[in-house]
Every structure is written in structure tokens, then in C-alpha cells.
Write a structure and sequence with these properties.
- It is a single chain.
- Helix content is 50%, strand content 10%.
- The chain contains four helices and two strands; from the N terminus they run H-E-H-E-H-H.
- The chain has a two-stranded parallel sheet.
- Helix 2 links the parallel strand 1 and strand 2.
- Helix 1 crosses helix 2.
- It is elongated, with a radius of gyration of 16 Å.
């Protein structure tokens, strides 16, 4: 796990962070998967710094966005069944 304090979450901050992270883990950087919560600029930074990495998104965060448009227990059940 790695973290940093930055002025703002944007593509430039994420690119800086990912550059440093990749430099630290590069010796072990075979096939790698990043899991994210789709913060502002992060998807673009992945494409710039690690274009061949597998990118996955956190279901809890996807659900938080999903339920803003599709409310109700039926949608919740369908979503989590598909996520599993």
C-alpha cells in the first residue's frame, strides 16, 4: 500500500504518484492489476503511466454511483449478484 498528500486530486497528481509507485515496484512488475475508486484524473493517469496494466473498479464505489439513478432493493440485489 502507498499513499501521498497532494494539493488536489487530479490527473497530474495521480500521474506523479503512479510514476513513483511504479519506479518502486518495477522489479516485480510482471502482470499487475490496479483496483481503484475512479477518483478524478486517476483513469487518465493509469493510461499514461501503466497503459498495459489491468484496471478494476471497487464495487462499493460503483454501487454508490449506481444507486443514485436506480433506487430500490431489487436493483441492489441484481447489482450484487452480478458483482459476485
Amino acid at each position: 500500500m502507498a499513499w501521498a498528500i497532494v494539493e488536489v486530486e487530479n490527473r497530474d497528481s495521480w500521474t506523479w504518484f503512479l510514476d513513483l509507485l511504479v519506479k518502486d515496484i518495477e522489479p516485480t512488475l510482471g502482470n499487475i492489476t490496479f483496483m481503484s475508486d475512479r477518483q478524478k484524473g486517476l483513469v487518465e493517469a493509469f493510461a499514461t503511466v501503466v497503459p498495459n496494466a489491468e484496471i478494476r473498479h471497487c464495487c462499493r464505489h460503483i454501487w454508490s454511483n449506481f444507486k443514485l439513478n436506480w433506487v430500490g432493493e431489487a436493483y441492489k440485489q441484481i447489482f450484487w449478484k452480478a458483482a459476485r
